[in-house]
Amino acid sequence: MSSESLFPITAQAPTNNQRLFARYFMAILVDLVVLNLFVEYSGKVQIDSFTVSLLAAVVLQVLLRLTIAIEQRVASFFKSKEGRLMVFLRFFCAWLVLFGSKFVILEAIALAFGDNVRFGGPLHGVVWLVIVIATMLVAEEAVVRLYRRLDER
């Protein structure tokens, strides 16, 4: 039984834009849940209100997608070149973008929300920001995999 056979005859399959919206909407909700779980249980992440955590989840999602897009462009630039140095530069620059972006993200959060969002701990909160972001990415991937499994026959 195909998934389309479950729709009424008048229903249409979602468009690519609708799928993209659903993907990012889901990612923001997952990020929101992860952020608020860290607020509740860690003591190293403090957010003053639910509204601020929702806005922070949106900002984090945008900045993470931007970081990944930049990292992929840098990697593809070096991937098109030949030689061991280019392979090294591809991985080093990708690491540099991914690592350096955490400082940019932390500063953007500080500028956008001031003292309403605080990450504590080592390196002025960068370590806990990295932990939160890694958890967000793992949670997003888990939800996507679960969603895809639901379509298996």
Fraction of helical residues: over 70%
The multimeric state of the shown protein is single chain
Main sheet attributes: strand count, strand direction, barrel closure: 2 strands, antiparallel
Q: Overall mean pLDDT score?
A: 87
General form = flat
Contiguous runs where pLDDT drops below 50 for at least 5 residues: none
Using only C-alpha atoms, the radius of gyration works out to 19 Å
| SS elements, strand count | 2
Structural class: mainly alpha
Whole-number tally of structural domains: 1
Count of DSSP-assigned helices: 4
Series of secondary-structure elements, N-terminal to C-terminal:
HEHHEH
Distance between the termini: 8 Å
Q: Main sheet: which strands, in order across? A: 1-2
Beta percentage is under 5%
Q: How would you explain this protein's 3D organization?
A:
It is a single chain. The protein has 153 residues and is mostly helical. The chain has one domain (17-149). It is 72% helix and 4% strand. It is built from 4 helices and 2 strands, in the order H-E-H-H-E-H. Strands 1-2 form a two-stranded antiparallel ribbon. Helix 1 crosses helix 2 (50-79), helix 1 packs across helix 4 (126-149) and helix 2 packs antiparallel against helix 3.
